[in-house]
Each structure stands twice: as structure tokens, then as C-alpha cells.
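Figure 3 (text version): C-alpha cells given as input.
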């Protein structure tokens, strides 16, 4: 129950926060949510990774007009269909690492 609540809060927070705040807001939010929920280290990494990955992937497919696909496709020199997955994976990894840090900090505090 605790892990699913963290997932939902991070997912919704990422979608809403990405509208008003810079992209890196996923990092401190993942750290804060995993710190206060006291998840395990494994869950602290994978829950934020999946939440932000899915939120960014959905945002790119539903709200983007093709700009991210075109810009990242040229930057990474890959097909435009792969670029949303690359961008979502980058955001997921950043939030996963910060979520792991939050979980380890909370477990270290005990």
C-alpha cells in the first residue's frame, strides 16, 4: 500500500509539476517521497524510476507536438520513434537514483 501510494503521488506530481516547474523537479520530489515513506532501497530506486518514466512517456505522447522527437532524434541520431523512450528513461534514471538516495538516508537514520 505504501509503495503504490508513493508511485501514484510521484506520477501525478511529475505530470503536474512538469507543467510549471523545470524538468529536474523529479529529483528532489523522489528523494522527499522515498525518505518520508521509508521504502526499502530496491523499492526506493524502482518506484520513482517507473513513475517518472511512465509520466514522461505519457506527457511526450499526449502533449508534445513532435518537438522532442525531432530535437532528440537529431541529437542522438536515432529514429524519432525511439526518442520519447530515451527521454523518459533519462528522467526515470535521475529520479530513481534520487529515490534510492532518499531511501538509504531514511534507512540510515533509524
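Below: residues designed for each position.
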Amino acid at each position: 500500500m505504501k509503495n503504490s501510494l508513493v508511485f501514484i503521488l510521484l506520477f501525478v506530481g511529475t505530470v503536474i509539476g512538469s507543467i510549471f516547474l523545470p524538468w529536474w523537479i523529479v529529483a528532489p520530489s523522489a528523494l522527499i517521497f522515498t525518505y518520508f515513506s521509508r521504502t526499502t532501497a530496491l523499492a526506493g530506486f524502482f518506484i520513482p524510476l517507473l513513475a517518472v518514466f511512465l509520466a514522461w512517456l505519457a506527457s511526450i505522447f499526449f502533449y508534445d507536438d513532435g518537438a522532442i522527437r525531432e530535437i532528440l532524434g537529431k541529437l542522438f541520431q536515432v529514429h524519432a520513434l525511439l526518442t520519447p523512450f530515451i527521454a523518459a528513461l533519462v528522467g526515470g534514471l535521475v529520479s530513481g537514483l534520487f529515490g534510492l538516495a532518499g531511501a538509504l538516508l531514511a534507512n540510515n537514520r533509524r
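DSSP finds five helices and no strands in the chain.
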